[in-house]
User: What shape does this take?
Amino acid sequence: MKRILEHGVNQNVGSWSELTQAWKWIHHAVNILDNEEELPVLLVQQRFGAWMIFMSDHKKQLGSLADSINHLLKITRSYWSGLFHCYRVENLPKTNNDLEQVFGSYRHHTRRTTGRKKAPASM
Assistant: This one.
């Protein structure tokens, strides 16, 4: 395992600055979407849109990773209309993971209360 990790690290030595920069950019985007300040949806949307424009304008800084920013921008554009819906509906989970947890918890409790191993088809 140690040799595999060393090999991976040695092969990507030249990309560390690009990887670090990309990680910072993505982390900033995540912080905007986390919306810990509980900003109104339009402000979150504007901030995120401005950040997408910034990344698009400066993607050459990422060298070989610039294509990944292009992919992120393409996917973000395709989901833009529904991307901020979770900020408009109170208590709506922001991620699929959160939604899966809600449904999983419901399935678990349904199985416990009915004694069945599988959730009913009506669920």
Observations:
- The chain has a mean pLDDT of 81.
- The two ends are 44 Å apart (CA to CA).
